[in-house]
Amino acid sequence: MNYQEEIGLINQMVFQQSDQDTFDYFKKRLADTSKDSDAILRGLFCHALGTTAYKVGLYGRAIDYFFNSLDCYQSVDNSTPYRADLISWETIEIAFAHSYINQTKLSREFLERESVQKSIENKKIQHHLLLLEGVLAYKEDKPALFVSKIQTLLELPLNPSTILRDFNEFILLFRYSIALEEYEISLKILDILTSIATQSNRIDSQCQLAECKVLYYKSTNDIISYKNTFLELISLTNLKEKEYKKMKEKNIYLTDIIFHQYEQKVKTNKRIANLKEIAEIDSLTKLPNRYRINQYGPSQFLKARKGQKNLGVLMLDIDNFKLYNDQFGHLIGDKYLSLLGKVLRKHSDNAFAARLSGDEFLVIFYDQTNEQIKEYCKTISSELKNCDQIIIDDLPFGTLTISQGVVNEIPDYDMTWEDYVRRADYALYKGKRSNKNQITFVNV
Fold this sequence. Notes:
Blueprint: H1 3-16, H2 19-33, H3 39-55, H4 59-74, H5 83-100, H6 104-111, H7 114-118, H8 123-139, H9 143-155, H10 167-179, H11 183-200, H12 203-219, H13 223-249, H14 255-279, H15 290-307, E1 311-318, H16 321-328, H17 330-346, E2 352-357, E3 360-366, H18 370-385, H19 388-391, E4 402-409, H20 417-434, E5 439-442
Parallel strand pairs: 4-5
Antiparallel strand pairs: 1-3, 1-4, 2-3
Helix pairs in contact: 1-3, 2-3, 3-4, 4-5, 5-6, 5-8, 8-9, 8-10, 10-11, 10-12, 11-12, 12-13, 13-14, 16-17
GO molecular function, one term: diguanylate cyclase activity
Pfam family, one: GGDEF
Protein name: GGDEF domain-containing protein
């Protein structure tokens, strides 16, 4: 029996045909093989059913099918061709499925099995194993290990027999690399996703690819590409919904997969509705980003000028932040930025706080007095001082502090929003030149 032909057929069916067609086909094949003694073939069909369930997010069902497949492979004689590799592959698949439901400890246990360790030199197994190692490293909050594993993975040639199957895993790694701001890795993965989506020729793959591009352009502040890709995503999503409607009319989905695909379609619509919001939030501090500032700031400026109300703009940054990054590394710096974002969110019920760039933050106040803004500044500074030990016990440059510059006036008709931001920035650096850890007010 040429199992390689069956494996090729499985990959083609699972990742290029409709989910229902695949499910029906391999259920029939499994029923037919149950009448004879070919356990390897039954295992392959169980694997195909598990992969189909896995692809649409039914991870519990996928794990059941993968275990059935593993039992089939283990039941045959040790001399059976491909037996060891199939057992290793199926064990990794089970580990992958557990990682998707955040059972990382259990996933690690499967990777440590003897069957997997013996097959590490197999290029196909090695490729798949590195994918999973990258996923687990991120889930276990080990960014350096994540980068190391993915860089090793990207150096390997793509495996033609599994490239379609790896699409969802590469999407996951792409999102993780974006979250860690590893944009060079993200771009390489994006090229791989583009290649896979082209080969699969499926509308859902093209939608997923467009979502990844939107996320990449948002994260790298490429606003023009972001807008163009966002429009492309909307067009693809509409086309995808039309195709799903045609499939549903032909009644080619099983009841549970119909329900799941409906849920996925609803989630896709929600993701599109929320993309604007996601694009405006800084992932590290959970504060609005520069894009949102550029929308909110000018509107509040015009509102204050028309209503003759005070508009306050506070610029702040962390004193000696570069020294801390150089001394302790960016992970420590990121923790402090995250902490500052948390403090600003906590105390900004009556203000708009956002991350401008790097360690620079901007807060907008509407109809507030100088005294109220000064009290806000003192509160932020005081709370941060009490949280220093969260970052590190021994600070070589003294207590971590922030400098703050404020302008607060009724906007004049000769002024612009940019004037306000420039003056607040001037106030910030005027204070830093005289003595850091200052609150400095200036007039426009």
